[in-house]
Amino acid sequence: MKLNKNMKILIVGLGLMGGSYARALHRRGYSVSAITKDQSSIDFALSRGIIDKGSTEIDADIIGEADLVVFALYPHIFLKWLEENQHLFKSGAVITDVTGVKCSVVYKVQEMLREDVEFIAAHPMAGREVYGVENSDDRIFWGANYIVVPTEKNTEEAIELCCELGEVMGFYDVSVLSPEKHDEMIAFLSQLTHCIAVSLMCASDNPDLVHYTGDSFRDLTRIARINDEMWSELFLENKEALLFEMDRFKSSFDKMYNAINEGDRESMREMMRLSTARRGNFDRKL
Amino acid sequence: MKLNKNMKILIVGLGLMGGSYARALHRRGYSVSAITKDQSSIDFALSRGIIDKGSTEIDADIIGEADLVVFALYPHIFLKWLEENQHLFKSGAVITDVTGVKCSVVYKVQEMLREDVEFIAAHPMAGREVYGVENSDDRIFWGANYIVVPTEKNTEEAIELCCELGEVMGFYDVSVLSPEKHDEMIAFLSQLTHCIAVSLMCASDNPDLVHYTGDSFRDLTRIARINDEMWSELFLENKEALLFEMDRFKSSFDKMYNAINEGDRESMREMMRLSTARRGNFDRKL
Fold first, then answer.
1. Does the CA dihedral A82-A85-A87-A89 come out positive or negative?
2. Distance of residue A103 Cα from the nearest chain B Cα, in angstroms
3. What does the pLDDT read at residue B285?
4. A192 Cβ under 8 Å from any chain B Cβ
5. Domains along chain B?
6. Is ipTM > 0.90 here?
7. pLDDT in tens, A120-145
8. Which residue of B has its CA nearest to A268?
9. In terms of CA atoms, which chain B residue is nearest residue A177?
10. Burial, A83: exposed, middle or buried (Cβ in 10 Å; 0-12, 13-18, 19+)?
């Protein structure tokens, strides 16, 4: 199956990410339907012309006609949804997701899924500190990375389809990683950073700080506004890799602590020079 | 002394910050001169009309006519400069600075300074990851905080003059703090955040990360590009307060680590809710 404009795309879970997918795909001329829990989300999306139709019910017609189904749900809800409703998929349908952890999801889904439907996992590395389809905006994909996460069970065709989906929606960089490599990478780049920001924000209860803050603190804690329900689930679903990266960060932070404590200026400067050189490569391509 | 346009202002150290002061003050119609170590900085500033005159020498005329002298030097160079050249100040001159730590500087300066010259410390909380007068830009002051840091030795007049200076240059919020409170605050809001960013950047040497990074990692490590000479000096000059804040952060981070390790989702969510509520107050006023 190649991505083509006669294809019917169904989005399950019309929040910030599902809504942004809908906007991007509808803009490109695809037929987009949605199933989500709140009627207000469907009404909003219809009124903005982001979707062609939608329902808050498990609508057998909408599910049965979809060639490509995108799941934008929390991991445990995604798994439960599949258990209960996978019999409604069209034979030959491809399903994908946006879940932020992979090992704990991908293998389970592929094991439980019907033989005539293929699941190809993906992780759009874009997000905002706001929620809901009302805040959806496909510009969050510009300059961002999209990662396709296949296993040995996936066909070349589905991997290509999923890559094409990321490109069509306007992601800057589309790449392919194994579930294990993905989870390692996400533990360091995303989960650890959120742990740091939240911990920092919790470290001092001085209410006066807000009057004196500079951009460095603002930038570092932007992601401390966090959806606690979603992120606590994602952290626990990737516990082992995350704890490993937290340990690595702690060692590095302790090295800086000891250098300061011992007045070892050369060790401090060495770390600073290393961080400066490395950070140079990480600017957004925009 | 009130700030007025007949006043002659001298900036010692024409780098990013000194140059940005010069731009802001010259734009408002003040007469600005500069003393700095490189002729190329003077030439650049003259060619851009940022200063009226400048020298790489200890020019007795320029120093002797200045009513207000701003020092934008590293702490140890600032102290050495004063020791060698303070006899050249005009009687009644007010001097100020931009140094990022205060206890280790302010008391020493006030103790060594001539009786007929007043030092009122200030910290403009603005900066960039670039250096030199060539990159100076007084827009870095917009929306930023400016802190005046007096001791018991300071006169009301000088405190007011210094506050007015911050306002005239376009800072959003001008406030007054003791050296001790300033250093506590800066240890948490600025130095700790730089320690975290540098440590994170040093924690993994995986060169592939750059292909998969998202905005959270970019934001958190923006300040990992750091002037190692300046920041290592600032860290050591504020060692005690910084180590105290690093300990507080470590406790908070360990609490998150333990919650994840024990699968204690409610403790994780509690920290996330606290950080979300607190962070809401910290957005830039711009």
1. negative
2. 17
3. 55
4. yes
5. 8-177 (3.40.50.720), 182-282 (1.10.3660.10)
6. no
7. 999 999 877 788 999 999 999 998 89
8. B232
9. B212
10. exposed
